[in-house]
Design brief:
Elements: E1 4-9, H1 15-23, E2 27-32, H2 48-54, E3 60-61, H3 69-78, E4 82-86, H4 94-97, E5 104-108, H5 120-126, E6 131-138, E7 148-155, H6 162-186, H7 218-227, E8 234-240, E9 249-260, H8 263-266, E10 276-279, E11 284-288, E12 291-300, E13 306-307, H9 308-314, E14 322-324
Parallel strand pairs: 1-2, 1-4, 2-3, 4-5
Antiparallel strand pairs: 5-6, 6-7, 8-9, 8-14, 9-12, 10-11, 11-12, 12-13
Helix pairs in contact: 1-2, 1-6, 5-7
Length: about 325
């Protein structure tokens, strides 16, 4: 018998999964999503999930807080069998998840119990993980702690950014959730409790988290650059002039792509971290805490993205110029 499903999500990560559910034989009876937000220039952000359900005349509810009595009342009026949650951005109360007959399930972009929290994709790349995955779990009031219903692993590409990885994981989640809903419909789910001794956290990112600390290793900086795309982005400040302590000019740069250099090239300098080792109109090489790193692409604040070669064509760098370290 087809399930009555309420979708709960906001971000693009939820889109493929919700599309797959809408195309299944199940009956989607409502969408909970975050309130519409106004961005720079008073432009309204387009919510792709609202667009997805609009043509099917599915009710949309956008509460500031899903756990308020009126929100729970609206959910109860939909009489759902199950809520499917993906990138919703709110922690659900025990009262709310008790409304659907079969509870609520979440599509989470990590191999739980690893990286519970708001930024599992970014944290996996930031920590240099070589693989990650998607987990479907039954929601309990404690953050990302419910029993596992499905889990699938995938390698992280050596140059893959968080945005690129999110796109792949979203597709994995879409195929997973349809299979799990089939199991819930037939009563064949086999929940597996999480190993609490293996729990790690992935807290929400802050804009200032993107500031590069040049004391770190080349690999760690590479992980940061890839983990923080498309947001909050990794950035640094170029200090130009007679000395880093008293520069004549400073410029903020967003770093988009880097490449750690081999040890036989990078271990020959005794320069301080952040010092520019090479800026010859073709290559931009920087000293880190353990070896050197080449910047391949960057974006000066307020300008377009460009290669290091393009940047150097318009910015003459001299001995003593350096990047400020966090």
């Amino acid at each position: 018998m087809a399930l009555r499903i309420v979708l709960m999500g906001t971000g693009a990560f939820a889109l493929p999964a919700f599309q797959a559910i809408l195309e299944s034989h199940h009956n989607t009876v409502g969408l909970f999503t975050q309130p519409d937000r106004t961005g720079r220039g008073h432009h309204q952000h387009v919510n792709p999930l609202k667009t997805l359900v609009a043509e099917r005349q599915i009710p949309v509810f956008q509460p500031e807080k899903a756990n308020l009595p009126e929100s729970i009342g609206f959910l109860r009026s939909l009489a759902p069998d199950v809520c499917v949650v993906a990138a919703y951005g709110q922690i659900l109360s025990a009262e709310l998840i008790g409304v659907p007959r079969l509870g609520a399930v979440n599509i989470h972009a990590s191999l739980l119990p690893k990286y519970r929290g708001a930024a599992p994709i970014q944290t996996a790349i930031l920590n240099g993980e070589q693989e990650t995955g998607v987990t479907i779990f039954r929601i309990e009031p404690k953050l990302d702690a419910g029993p596992l219903l499905a889990i699938e692993k995938t390698p992280i590409g050596p140059k893959e950014t968080a945005g690129e990885l999110e796109t792949r994981l979203a597709e994995i989640g879409a195929s997973q959730i349809v299979a799990v809903l089939h199991q819930m419909e037939s009563g064949t789910t086999v929940p597996l409790n999480q190993d609490s001794s293996q729990v790690s956290r992935a807290p929400r990112l802050k804009k200032e988290s993107g500031r590069i600390n040049w004391d770190k290793t080349p690999s760690q900086i590479d992980w940061q650059v890839r983990a923080f795309q498309p947001w909050p982005t990794a950035y640094t400040t170029l200090l130009k002039g007679s000395s880093a302590e008293n520069p004549h000019e400073s410029q903020r740069l967003i770093v988009l792509e880097v490449a750690p250099l081999p040890a036989d090239i990078s271990d020959t300098s005794d320069a301080l971290p952040g010092a520019i080792l090479l800026a010859d109109r073709k290559r931009l090489v920087v000293q880190t805490g353990q070896g050197a790193l080449e910047i391949l692409r960057l974006r000066p604040e307020g300008k377009r993205a460009m290669s290091a070669t393009e940047f150097l064509a318009g910015h003459q760098l001299a001995a003593g110029d350096r990047f400020e370290s966090a």
